[in-house]
Amino acid sequence: MCLFRLNKYYRFLILFCCAFLVHSTSHALPTFSRQTEQPCSVCHLNFGELTHEGRQFKLTGYTKGKNVIPISATATASITKIQNTSSSVAPDLFLAKNNVPMIEEANLYLAGKYWENIGGYLKWTSSFANTNPIYGSTGVQTGTKVGQDTFLDASEVRFAKESMIGREKVNWGISLNNSPSVQDLWSTSPVYGFPYRTSSLQNAWGIGQFGPTTLVDGGLNSQVIGLSAYAMFDDSIYLEISDYVKSTPGWATIATASNFNTVSSGNNPYWRLAWNKHSSENSFMLGTFGMNTNLVRDPFVPGSAKGNYFDYGFDTQFQHITNTHSYSAQATVVYEFVNWGGRSVGRSHDNQNSNLVTIKTKATYDYLRKYGTSIFAFSSKGTIDNLYWNYNPDPTVITGACNQNMSLLTYCSLSGSPNTTGSGFELYFDPIPYVHIVYQQTYYQTFLGGGQFVDNSAGLQRNASDNNLSYFYITVSY
Predict the structure, then answer these.
(1) CA angle 356, 359, 363 (to 5 degrees)
(2) Domain residues of the chain, as ranges?
């Protein structure tokens, strides 16, 4: 088990938590609780998983309850540790802030009821985990900066109504949002699926907690803007149709997650269909979703290819929720097919087409809506693509993701395969409302094709288990 020495950081984390606890207990509660006059446990099983009541609140446009000032804020302090850094030329640069306590992120929300039938969930994120990119003599990027420091995170504004068709109730509405699936109701969607929080440093290090993932699985977060029309028929059948275009806002207050955006300005449609069943303490969902996305070539990456991405997935969720013992389970599988175009063959990809299949599963036990544990597993399997995934030490090569000039990847494959598998667990504790304490551990059985892969900064081999991740964090809401 990959553990890090928490005793070194108790003072830092306790002081952080206490400062916010004193502040939050003497001021207003977060938006949704103030509005509904209900504790968070009514709408949430844990930090990120909605109950049936929570899904109804979101379905009706966040408008149930009284009018309040819809402002909330959260802050997260954390420690992230990767098990082994020995293969890096300069671990303090390549894996910056490893095993260092830090204030990781702050969020400001304008969320809740705006008008009678209009509500929303607007979230601004400020990341303190970003490090400026540093390039070694071979051109390999080391302290990678992922996205902007402050941006409009996955957000939406809804218009929602309830109507009757004969004797059947229909909840319907329109969502204006900047991230496909942010409007979804279940805890299996790409934006709100497990884990409900990951370390910002993982992406900055080029790891990604679950290895290679499909584009629809968060790759378009805060990069697009779209309009969704949805309807829930008799709390049973949910249908949604959406269309997205490239987001290029001119205002800093609605900045995208990344400065450069390769999403096509044309149509990028998304769809969602789900069957929902709720009865007393139990609820069950079986659904499907999909998206077709066009990306243009990245002009800053020599030899990069444009791509047409077709993603579709299937998901399911079960919940048994009481005030004492609660259980839930989720599973999602996503299939992705990419057409890179003829010009990519022999330059940046082995073939014109490739595919990737990802699977994520999670099961949770919660006691007293206060203590909980989750176990999870994941798998990514895809087409072998030596030109893209393989480590290439030749300094004259400028194409592919693992070249030594303008490399896109921190880690590269020995076999040209993106296949990654792993599992893990999470322990959480909510000592009082609006304080969430979590320890999360991820283990890798394979990474980028097998039990070994290459550190692109030094050309040295690493074991899959070297990337095992420990993540401890405290999130406080106000």
Answers:
(1) 170
(2) 6-28+82-101+131-477
Please name the amino acid found at residue 74: T
Burial class (CB in 10 A: 0-12, 13-18, 19+), 459: middle
Instruction: Pick 40 or 377 by higher pLDDT.
Output: 377
Tokens of 78: 């954390």
**Three-state DSSP string of 263-275:** ECCCCEEEEEEEE
Tokens 């296949």 sit on residue: 419
Q: What is the pLDDT of residue 131?
A: 60
Class of domain 6-28+82-101+131-477: mainly beta
What does the H/E/C string look like for 289-355?
EEEEEEECCCCCCCCCCCEEEEEEEEEEEEEECCCCEEEEEEEEEEEEEEECCHHHECCCECCCEEE
Mean pLDDT (the chain, rounded)? 86
Given the structure tokens 């985990």, which residue do they identify?
Answer: 129
Query: Beta partners for 246?
Result: 224
186 contacts 317 by C-beta, under 8 angstroms: yes
Give residue-wise pLDDT tens across range 178-218: 999 999 999 898 888 899 999 988 877 878 889 899 999 98
- Distance of alpha carbon 206 from the chain centroid: 15
Sequence-distant (6+) residues with CB within 8 A of 349 are: 305, 340, 385, 387, 388
Q: For residue 310, name the pLDDT band (cuts at 50, 70, 90).
A: very high
Q: Which of 458, 378, 457 is nearest to 418 (CA)?
A: 378
User: CA-CA distances (angstroms) from residue 423 to 363, 442, 462, 463, 465?
Assistant: 12, 6, 19, 16, 11
Q: Is the pLDDT of residue 147 over 80?
A: no
Q: Which two tokens stand for residue 266?
A: 């044309």
408-426: b (≥16 Cβ within 10 Å) or e: bbbbbbbebbbbbbbebeb
pLDDT in tens, 5-40: 334 443 333 333 333 333 332 222 378 888 998 888
DSSP state of 143: S
What are the pLDDT digits (tens) for 241-257?
999 999 988 787 888 88
Backbone angles phi, psi at 200, to 5 degrees: -65, -25
